[in-house]
UniProtKB/TrEMBL annotation:
Pfam families: Rotamase_3, SurA_N_3
Keyword Amino-acid biosynthesis belongs to the record: no
Record protein name field: Periplasmic chaperone PpiD
Organism: Salinivibrio sharmensis
PANTHER family in UniProt: PEPTIDYL-PROLYL CIS-TRANS ISOMERASE D, PERIPLASMIC CHAPERONE PPID
Residues forming coiled coils: none
Family label: Belongs to the PpiD chaperone family.
Domain PpiC as annotated: residue spans: 268-364
Keyword field contains Membrane: yes
Main localization, broad class: membrane
NCBIfam families: PRK10788.1 (NF008054)
């Protein structure tokens, strides 16, 4: 087989391919092919185990995928131990769900044929190029993941069998026309309301409070007036900004780089080849390969022979075609023989590799095309500047880390070592930090034992690719109870707001009582707004939610209720009318029908998983999942 032919496959294209398929592998237990050991499992599902190695691999794969998608934002989340714990738990739960579905599918007798597996692999977009299955991509991906073709096929078979069950559950749901009509009526219904807004601040301003009331409130709520531990932080920050601007690159440097890396500035010579593979390295395999070569020399068609005898089944179906190859991708012996052929249609002799004997045919040649130096000179200069700036940043960050560790009782020597300054923050509470000090990595460092208790410098904290920092606590103000005198104004404001809100609600209640009794607000200073029509989703969401919870008004009498808006003001709401929508003909193929059916299908799948969990003994063995 060809999955291990390539040696040293580290090209950008392969990395892109791997990034595309990594999520597909993440929850399928690929680690079970590679890991063993006697460690306790992460979870047990019936008589099957999910090993810690499987969970670790799935976690690392999903973490890599999220880092590629979300970048620095996701890295900041990883600084929160609680988030990491939930993230890992979600992955384990999904692995358990997959195993439950796999077991259920097996018990139902669901099966997947070899032809279905092969068709699914060929259809995967990660392995296609120009609309066709690309064997090079497939083989390179297998090699980089450390899987054999049989292992990947088994993984795909299990996944397809599990998907059969999921598709069956999701495909069994249906929606009746009457259900769609009723749902449309509910969703599209609107309500006409009028409102009176009672600003809490207006009531608060009228509240009169004595010192005794204020002190009594303070004594009853002393825990609300504790100043948290405050810290003042000293830090030395190192960034890569500006490091490249003063780096001089000579023309000789540029030309040398160009000569050493011409493959980056044009295409290498590519060759399109086909091959016939006879697996094995013994005399029997060699004799069989010699017989095939003799048949070719006698005039038999290469394509027909490849389909008949080649052990590389994927390329055999294409008449032995491996499509285009480039230098440093294939097995060295295979590549040397392929590039030794000079004319299209030339056929090699027997070529031995670790996987057997190959007979190679040259199908086409795409000659190298190198971009002139003058056209890429500026790009090379920028690239070299950035590379040397990165080296300079690495050297400075290494120096900063070493000196900060060796002179752990102050940041002065570390700052001087990189020709920088020590910077200082104002006092702040750790849980109320903003800006740079709010970064999770810095928060963790400031709360570490050596920094918090021993007053030492932190380790070097890498915030991003070229952004690092070392911090220490310059001063600490311990938590303290604030006196009544210190917070008297704050107490007054809080208590006035509470009493103002109470009075606003009381006034709202009085207004509603008057309205329900007389139907009007005679003698009141308050008047309703003009009628407005609200849908279920509105900018005035609190008013809308109340309006849709009030009973439908009878005849000319409105329904009334009280809520609070986003600003905290009290709002009296009068519901005057429920407006029913005209119901159109809703096709079972409409987007609405599809949305409702998806919701029902997801409910069915969730219910099935819950039932399976109740039937099968699921045990979490990880300490953080107890």
């Amino acid at each position: 087989m060809m999955e291990r032919i390539r040696e040293g496959t580290n090209s950008l294209a392969v990395k892109i391919i791997l990034s595309l398929i990594i999520f597909s592998f993440a929850f399928a237990g690929v680690g079970s092919y590679l890991a063993g050991g006697s460690n306790p499992p992460a979870a047990t599902v019936g008589d099957k185990e999910i090993s810690r190695a499987e969970l670790d691999r799935a976690y690392q794969n999903e973490r890599a995928r999220m880092q590629q998608q979300a970048g620095e934002q996701f890295n900041q989340l990883l600084g929160n131990p609680e988030y990491v714990k939930r993230f890992r738990q979600n992955i384990l739960d999904r692995m358990i769900n997959d195993l439950l579905l796999e077991q259920a599918a097996s018990e139902l007798g669901l099966r997947v044929s070899d032809a279905q597996v092969k068709a699914a692999i060929r259809a995967m977009p990660q392995f296609r190029q120009g609309g066709q299955f690309n064997n090079d991509r497939y083989q390179a991906a297998l090699r980089q993941t450390g899987m054999s073709a049989d292992e990947f096929a088994n993984y795909m078979r299990t996944d397809l069998m599990r998907q059969q069950l999921v598709n069956g559950l999701q495909g069994s749901g249906f929606v009746l026309p009457s259900e769609l009509e009723n749902l449309y009526r509910l969703e599209a219904q609107s309500r006409q309301v009028r409102t009176i807004t009672l600003p809490v601040d207006d009531f608060a301003e009228q509240v009169s409070l004595t010192d005794d009331e204020l002190e009594a409130y303070y004594q009853a709520n002393r825990d609300d007036y504790i100043q948290p531990r405050m810290v003042k932080v000293a830090y030395v920050e190192l960034t890569g900004e500006g490091l490249a601007s003063d780096i001089q690159i000579s023309d000789q440097d540029i030309e040398a780089y160009y000569q050493e890396n011409q493959s980056q500035y044009g295409s290498q010579e590519r060759r399109k080849v086909s091959h016939i593979l006879i697996e094995g390295t013994g005399e029997e395999a060699k004799a069989k390969a010699e017989q095939v070569l003799e048949r070719l020399n006698q005039g038999e068609a290469f394509t027909a022979l490849a389909k008949e005898v080649s052990d590389d089944t994927f390329s055999a179906e294409q008449g032995g075609s491996l499509d285009w190859i480039e230098p440093d991708v294939m097995d060295p012996a295979f590549e040397k023989a392929a590039y030794a052929l000079s004319e299209k249609g030339d056929i090699s002799g027997l070529v031995q590799s670790d996987f057997g004997y190959h007979i190679i045919r040259l199908d086409d040649i795409d000659l190298a095309d190198v971009t002139p130096l003058a056209e890429v000179k500026d790009d090379i200069r920028t690239e070299l500047q950035q590379a040397r700036a990165a080296d300079r940043f690495y050297a400075q960050s290494t120096t900063l880390a070493e000196v900060a560790f060796e002179e752990a009782n102050g940041l002065g020597p570390a700052a001087a070592a990189i020709n920088s300054d020590v910077q200082y923050t104002d006092y702040f509470a750790l849980d109320a930090a903003t800006g740079l000090m709010a970064r999770p990595q810095i928060q963790q460092a400031l709360d570490s034992y050596d920094v918090r208790e021993n007053g030492l410098n932190s380790e070097l904290i890498e915030l991003s690719g070229e952004h690092a920092i070392v911090v220490r606590l310059d001063d600490v103000k311990p938590e303290k109870q604030l006196s009544f005198a210190e917070v008297k104004d704050q107490v007054r404001e809080t208590l006035a707001a509470e009493k103002g809100q109470e009075q606003a609600k009381q006034t709202a209640g009085d207004l509603i009582a008057q309205l329900e009794q007389t139907g009007e607000l005679a003698g009141s200073d308050y008047t309703f707004s003009a009628p407005i029509t609200l849908n279920r989703v509105s900018q005035q969401q609190a008013v809308a939610e109340l309006a849709f919870s009030l009973p439908q008004p009878e005849s000319d009498a409105a329904s009334y209720g009280v809520t609070q808006n986003r600003e905290g003001d009290v709002v009296v709401v009068a519901l005057d009318k429920v407006i029913e929508p005209e119901v159109p003909d809703i096709s079972p193929q409409s987007q609405m029908a599809a949305r409702v059916q998806r919701a029902m299908s997801n409910m069915s799948l969730s219910a099935t998983l819950q039932a399976l969990r109740e039937e099968v003994d699921v045990t979490y063995a990880e300490s953080d999942n107890q």
